[in-house]
């Protein structure tokens, strides 16, 4: 049963990546719950080896790259379709690679999942960005499928070379 659940979740993540890479952001947005939280904390470089990875990350209420709810994500999605999103004119080309999917916990209708990602983004003739990290998700079973209720995106890099973060993870 665990392997079957992981396979279903992997298929869901592959669909999500396909929608993002095809720039079908409205369809991607439909994969989120109404009460979604989509958060990317900032990573710090501590001088000493921390006991836990979490010690390298900003805490809730501290600095972050983004901390979105359904309303702010909807605005970001709709803005990507407008001509006023300078960071996406012309639009980015992305490739989302999802790997190491691990089901951590299952309770009632929610499943805690961790996965690794590599997002390659290219734009214009010379802009190239590489984002690598892990995602901590809470997936919720809805109508026989999954929706993303919580996503924490943890980048491996502490300093970004990218001019902006206008893509979704």
The shape is globular
CATH architecture: Roll
Q: What separation lies between the terminal Cα atoms?
A: 28 Å
SSE string: HHEEHEEEE
Structural class: alpha+beta
Q: Tally the beta strands.
A: 6
Q: Give the number of helices.
A: 3
**Percent helix:** 10-25%
- What is the fold-level CATH name, i.e. the topology? Nuclear Transport Factor 2, Chain: A
CATH class: Alpha Beta
Tell me the strand order in the biggest sheet.
2-1-6-5-4-3
**C-alpha-based Rg, rounded:** 16 Å
Unreliable stretches:
none
Percent of residues in β-strands? 35-45%
Largest sheet: 6 strands, mixed
What does the average pLDDT come to? 93
In short:
This protein is an alpha+beta fold. Helix content is 21%, strand content 43%. The two termini are 28 Å apart.
Describe the structure.
With 169 residues, the chain is an alpha+beta fold. The chain has one domain: Nuclear Transport Factor 2, Chain: A (Roll), CATH 3.10.450.50. Helix content is 21%, strand content 43%. It has a six-stranded mixed beta sheet with strand order 2-1-6-5-4-3. The longest helix is centred in the first third of the chain and has 20 residues. The radius of gyration is 16 Å and the shape is globular.
Identify the notable features of this structure and list them briefly.
169 residues, alpha+beta, Nuclear Transport Factor 2, Chain: A, 3 helices, 43% strand
Chart the SSEs and their pairings:
Layout: H1 2-21, H2 25-29, E1 32-41, E2 64-69, H3 70-80, E3 93-107, E4 110-123, E5 127-142, E6 145-155
Parallel strand pairs: 1-6
Antiparallel strand pairs: 1-2, 3-4, 4-5, 5-6
